[in-house]
Amino acid sequence: MTAASSAAGRLPRVALLDYGAGNIRSAQRALEHVGAHVEVTQDPHVAVEADGLVVPGVGAFAACMRGLNAVQAPRIVGQRLAGGRPVLGICVGMQVMFERGVEHGVDAQGLGEWPGTVEKLEAPVLPHMGWNTLEIPEGSAMFSGLDADTRFYFVHSYGVREFPLEADEYIEYPRIAWAEHGPSRFIAAVENGPLWATQFHPEKSGDAGLALLGNWVRTLA
């Protein structure tokens, strides 16, 4: 039994949303490694009722949104977050949490959980592929036990370069990790109550990625 096991002795149940665009198997293996029982699913009931939901994503923003709409993901994510139930977005699974994405001349609507636009990074070399450090926010549960020299694995050409959300004394402001590629500074991760998301791939980031996924799975107990 792992540290992520609940007090009742069972493994946290994680639904890994399969909508035709995602790094499904490597994410499944990584989550199982840190103590989750993972079910790859397109079933809205399973996705809503699981202890945690993972929304992966690889490819173009608009294509991912079409796949997500086909499996009722906007309703699933909205219903979970309304009840304070954890959701983790990975790569394009993070990008779709923002209002919109502009990619290859296509302007597509996202899930709108956060303000902001996904757009092409301004850098001489794209895609941004490989290992990079982050500006880790203070008090982050997502990055607990990890230091500023920790590197994560990225593969992307698009990102969110601004987070146009004003601070509100009644709402806790999201904790945002930033990264840089060339002259572009972009959002690398967001921790916002039950909604966590990463632009990088924790499932491809070795021990650091497993530590982050373990931090998330422990919130599900």
Automatic annotation (TrEMBL):
<keyword id="KW-0368">Histidine biosynthesis</keyword>
<keyword id="KW-0963">Cytoplasm</keyword>
<feature type="active site">
    <location>
        <position position="201"/>
    </location>
</feature>
<keyword id="KW-0028">Amino-acid biosynthesis</keyword>
<keyword id="KW-0378">Hydrolase</keyword>
<dbReference type="InterPro" id="IPR029062">
    <property type="entry name" value="Class_I_gatase-like"/>
</dbReference>
<dbReference type="Pfam" id="PF00117">
    <property type="entry name" value="GATase"/>
</dbReference>
<comment type="pathway">
    <text>Amino-acid biosynthesis; L-histidine biosynthesis; L-histidine from 5-phospho-alpha-D-ribose 1-diphosphate: step 5/9.</text>
</comment>
<dbReference type="InterPro" id="IPR017926">
    <property type="entry name" value="GATASE"/>
</dbReference>
<keyword id="KW-0456">Lyase</keyword>
<comment type="function">
    <text>IGPS catalyzes the conversion of PRFAR and glutamine to IGP, AICAR and glutamate. The HisH subunit catalyzes the hydrolysis of glutamine to glutamate and ammonia as part of the synthesis of IGP and AICAR. The resulting ammonia molecule is channeled to the active site of HisF.</text>
</comment>
<comment type="subunit">
    <text>Heterodimer of HisH and HisF.</text>
</comment>
<dbReference type="InterPro" id="IPR010139">
    <property type="entry name" value="Imidazole-glycPsynth_HisH"/>
</dbReference>
<keyword id="KW-0315">Glutamine amidotransferase</keyword>
<protein>
    <recommendedName>
        <fullName>Imidazole glycerol phosphate synthase subunit HisH</fullName>
        <ecNumber>4.3.2.10</ecNumber>
        <ecNumber>3.5.1.2</ecNumber>
    </recommendedName>
</protein>
<dbReference type="GO" id="GO:0016829">
    <property type="term" value="F:lyase activity"/>
</dbReference>
<feature type="active site" description="Nucleophile">
    <location>
        <position position="91"/>
    </location>
</feature>
<feature type="domain" description="Glutamine amidotransferase">
    <location>
        <begin position="16"/>
        <end position="207"/>
    </location>
</feature>
<feature type="active site">
    <location>
        <position position="203"/>
    </location>
</feature>
